[in-house]
Amino acid sequence: MSNRQSSRGRSSSFPSLVGRGGRGGRGGRNISNSNVSARGGRGHVPNQSRPRRTSPSPPTHARNVTSTDTPPSHRPASTARPATQSNLRSKSNPSSTPKRDGEKGASSHTVSESNRMQLDTLIYQLRESTSETRVTLPPDLTNTQRKYVHELAKKLGLSSKSYGRGEDRRVVVSKVDDSKIGSAFGSQNNDILPIIHVGQKGKEALRRHWNCFPPTEVEAMESRETGSSFLKQQREFGEDQDDGLDLMEVAMSALPTDLPDHVIHSVANDDQQNTTITTPKKKETDKLQTMIHKRIRNHQRSQKATKSHPQYMSMMAQRRKLPAFEYAEDICAVLRDEKNQVVILTGDTGCGKSTQVPQFLLDDPHIGPTANILITQPRRISAISVAERVASERCETAGQSVGYSVRLETSVSQQTQLLFVTPGVLMRRLQPKDDDNAEDERLAEFTHIIMDEIHERDKNTEFLMIALQEILEKRDNLKLILMSATMPTRDLADYWCGVGKRRQLKRKEREQVTNGQHRTCVANNENKRSNIADIVDDDIWGDDAAVMPTEINIPGRTFPVQEFFLEDVLTITGFVDAIHGADAPDMAQMEKDIIALLNVRTKGAAKSKKSSKDCRNSAFLNTAPPTSLSQLENTLTCVMCNQSGFKCAEEFGTHVAFCDGGGNISMEELESRVRSIDMSSIRGFDDDAANSAFSGEPEALHDIDDIMFDIPEGEMESYDDDIPGLLDDGKWNGESRFIIDNQSSSSQPTLTEAEMLTRYQTMFDDEEINYDLILELLRYIVKSSYGDGAVLIFFPGWAEISEFSLILESTHPFSDSSQFIALPLHSGIPSKDQRQVFLKPPVGVRKIILATNIAETSLTIEDVAFVIDTGRAKEKSYDPHLKTSTLQESWISQASAKQRRGRAGRCKAGVCFHLFTRRRYSFMRPFVESELLRTPLEEICLQCKRLKLASGGPDEPTGIPIFLSKAMAPPHPKSVLNALELLVDLGAMDEETNDLTDLGCCLSALSLEPRVGKMVIMSNLLGCSRSSTLMATAMSYKSPFALPPPSMRKASDQAKVKFSNGSESDQITSLNVLKQREVMFKRGSLFGWCRENFLNFSAINMISDLRKHASRELESLGFPPSSESGFHNRNEDYPHVAFHQAAICAGLYPNLAYRRQGDINFSTMSNKKAKIHVSSVNAVKSQPLSTKCQVAENEVEFILYGELVKGKAMFTMENTSRLSSPLPLILFCGQLRVRPYQSSMSEAKQAILSVDEWLSFLCDADIAATLVVLRQRLDSVFALMTSDPANYFNKLTQTQADAIQTLDQVIKFAFNEGHSR
Fold this sequence. Notes:
Blueprint: H1 3-6, E1 17-19, E2 29-31, H2 113-128, E3 134-136, H3 143-155, E4 159-163, E5 170-174, H4 199-212, H5 217-224, H6 228-237, H7 247-253, H8 267-275, H9 282-307, H10 312-320, H11 328-336, E6 342-347, H12 353-363, E7 373-376, H13 380-393, E8 402-406, E9 409-411, E10 418-421, H14 423-429, E11 448-451, H15 459-474, E12 479-484, H16 489-495, H17 501-509, E13 519-521, E14 534-536, E15 550-554, E16 561-564, H18 566-573, H19 575-579, H20 584-599, H21 613-623, H22 649-658, H23 667-675, H24 687-694, H25 704-708, H26 753-763, H27 771-784, E17 790-794, H28 798-809, E18 820-825, H29 831-834, E19 846-851, E20 864-869, E21 872-879, E22 884-891, H30 894-902, E23 910-914, H31 918-923, H32 938-946, H33 960-964, H34 973-986, H35 998-1004, H36 1010-1022, H37 1025-1036, H38 1049-1060, H39 1066-1083, H40 1086-1092, H41 1097-1117, H42 1138-1148, E24 1152-1155, E25 1162-1164, E26 1169-1172, E27 1197-1206, E28 1211-1219, H43 1223-1228, E29 1232-1237, E30 1246-1251, E31 1255-1260, H44 1261-1283, H45 1294-1315
Parallel strand pairs: 6-12, 6-15, 7-10, 7-11, 8-10, 11-12, 16-23, 17-19, 17-20, 18-19, 20-23, 22-27, 26-28
Antiparallel strand pairs: 1-2, 3-5, 4-5, 8-9, 13-14, 21-22, 24-25, 24-27, 25-26, 27-28, 29-30, 30-31
């Protein structure tokens, strides 16, 4: 890059892209802190395999390669795929000649993989930076690379724009300034604001309430203009005061100065309390001793019953076969040592750690009698199934010495010593009692806590690890065992280093350690090797000496799995060659032309023939010119531009095909330059031998047998042996090593891996699923292996599964059901269909399973022999910058790739094909991130306060941000602030202290997302509690509809529309399904009804059970039972959905979007454009919200959504519901403000009602005043209801009671005004 270009680079902390070379961009580009060179100038073919040159090339002008210039070897064959499937695989095969990086119209995926990774890193760094707001990229990017930057910036919610022309063209990427986001509509012209309509009867109801219960002076003033009463009081109070007097200071000055002694706390005493280990009170100690004695007696009885059972010996024989059983004594010995308070136990899949480790402790004579062990499993089904398995191994049923406690189901007794729970249940057990020492007695009844499968990193497990660290510091009799299959133990050990009693004990032992070296304590059994080590690092010892936790590793019991990557797949399938098969003659002609260029001067040269046979042989072996490209030496030099140092012959050939001689030269001049080259100057050439070889004389090939004798003796004999792992006809037998044939069957020259990848990535976007490549790989598997071993293919989502299923149905031989059976595996299909993948097909039929990442860890399909890993998955995460969830396809982690590979080695040897490169694998993140980094944190923040783990304010050391920063993988600070901001907006948390309000206390006790929980509580005020509880549980779980087969999508959509009954709401559609479910359940025809209407049988049953659970939680807070009749269900029988819409609006706000006449998409509060998700009933083509907006010019159409998800192209809204009238926004949502407005088009008095300074509406001034007063009174009712749910109704004043009655009337009449279209 010139000095002029260098001076234009960014002066920031980000690595910059540096371009080499002159005009035309022929030089490479690389990140300055990277050693990777990526060539990709305009019109130049990227070639990642080419080594970096030691000196820069002279500036050149690269010619633009048009479609006619593209060599035949890079044109896709028209016969590459069946014509009948062209509409199914348009993404995989380009219909025209593929453009290359830098060419006009080239796709962004043609940017080389290394360049894409560097650009990704650069843009992500900008996005995460707290100081940088923009980055300017250098001008030597190609137009294709700039296109990629624009697409990436849009995907990440950033702004990007190109400036300048020609070689000064630059891309500037910047963050979006949220402060510039203005009003939703009408900010420029208030005359076009939407109008609030309540109908004539609604106006009469409002006037009646105003007249019967006149407003106070303050209410009357605030109803005309927000803040007017405050200004009046300030004027009256401040006549004799300073202008700058703060009313808060005046209020504080009125407080008494003589505070009681009991409110004064000693900080020194508090600090001393926090650093000492407190002991229970005497009463609690006696209770604990009684419990221990009882536990010992129960343990003796259960052990005796187990060992006397007839099946005990056979169960023990099975347990001894597990690898974990050999480590029983070692594990117990470590836990008996009081120094080891935290133990990390890793074990490969199938070692038996989940079922055996708890039993080792229970059977140990020193640990078992007094032990009370709690084990966490990440999922409900896992906790139940493992508990039942352990109970059966102990010859008993669950609920005796082994029990479980999960959501909606519990099986425990007084004899239970092994309790399996989910992390959520354990979190609720952290709730302290009301007495003073409650926080020191958390989990006092347990002696051991085992956290299994912690590598899944769910948010509750991460939260528990923070809480348990603090508990272990106060309790020296609590042991913690952390178990995982793939978790990085070093990270875990660092996180738990020095926790608990071990720190104090190691201080006493410090003097015994000498020489400052590592000391390793290994616990060994007598005749076997143990993998237990406790490593202490002297370098980190000090007053706060830290010790690494003990680590135990148990080997697994898996079978060998071979893995191949994209490079191997392209080689064995010949996929790139197959696409160019129709151009084979052109390739041959290109090869002849290149050879001719190298030998054009030899026609008139004198030929000197050697007579010696040895000389002839030497000429043939060492100096003969190549007869094909595959024989070219890497020392060749291009005769047109003098470039040398090519890595392989194919690279040289590609260069020659596109070489323009350095630019600014005609083809005639280029040909003259070639003919004038002295061929003798080309290294590796011998003119005599070359002429001999090309003249057709036999001397060059004379006595070929003599050459063969130069091969070392015995070397050729190995080629006659049978290839291990193959049968006689070359097919894999499913037991030995899978051997691939690296030799292409084509007669064309074999491409190198680098060249194949370059061609492949030019023609295809490797971030898209290539269905044709998967088909070719399936064909190769079928022809290369015996037996009927199943093939498991991992896809990102249901759309890809459906599309490939259709392809298989129309492709021979996979369409033959007597040979193949394709089965989908997705969490959204019915359980009955899911179980089909576990059944073995008939003999001679091969099973092809199309699955998402649900098959990575939770399932074992015994007959899987092959795995095809696309490397892609749809991951849902939370973007703190956009304040939205994102559901996008992304590359999986290395740990996920390992798990997918292991699916083929569970019960026998297997093979795994990864459809991504080894380079891509090395760039993948090692493990899946913690869920704290991928999810909103509102529920976690509520639990921090409810469990009294973070009692301080947002800026205090004991506040929520500091508490969550102690996590093993702390969440983004912006995520925490977003959560606190949302809770404050909901009214659940105080802004200054973060203390929970009455509403916050209610929400923290519900197992519902906070916004959904508020919807349920507000429904008690609206009189539709029963329906809202059903809708809330459906939103919290999943859709009651099953994913239909591709051929039945239309019928499934029609079923959704039928259940919606014109409501234009997913929530109300689910409500109608669940109401009808009760009827069908009583008739006994529930299952058939579900199949007919594409409903998920297990999902609707679970939602029904969750509704009962949510009702019990509400009852525990004092709310009346949602299933019973009463004031809280007074509007359940109303024929329309007005109150349901109002409840949804009150809970989901600010999840609101709008559009105006002629719009197709919607705009959100943050000005994001969004569309309705395809799973919504409102996305069905026959629905009004799926077409252009048809409202009047001065009206606005509103839609509520459960979640805004960032997709690949744009935002999508899930769980949508049309809001017929904006009145619920005025009465229940945000901060309401009113101000007078005099229209230039009308003499009537009007007012503007605004919600959060975002939504603004025009309204008659008198009606606006009554709405403001009604809102204030409803707020007081809601506050009374959340403070005393059991007795609030009896405490209502006449004014408040009439306000509720007026609310019912106004909601109905406003809905009728806005419902019709």
